[in-house]
Task: structure prediction
Amino acid sequence: MGAEVEQAFPYVGIVDGQALTVAVLSYNGVLGFGITGDREVLPDIDVLVDGIAAGFRELRVAYGLAEPAADGEPETEVTA
Result:
């Protein structure tokens, strides 16, 4: 109908016997991660999210695309 998709969010549900799924989608110049986890099994799943964000921040800094984060500043945009 002529409308352009501007954003897409990856998601993979949890199935029986799994505690974590990670979906990755590259679309329209944005690399997105969808992380779904069972907090009863992985109460610190935010450590994974923060680690992914920090890793990509390091890459952007290494390639001159971003300044290093100041102390206490969030590493990157994380949408929950």
In short: The radius of gyration is 15 Å. The longest strand covers residues 20-27. The chain has a mean pLDDT of 87.
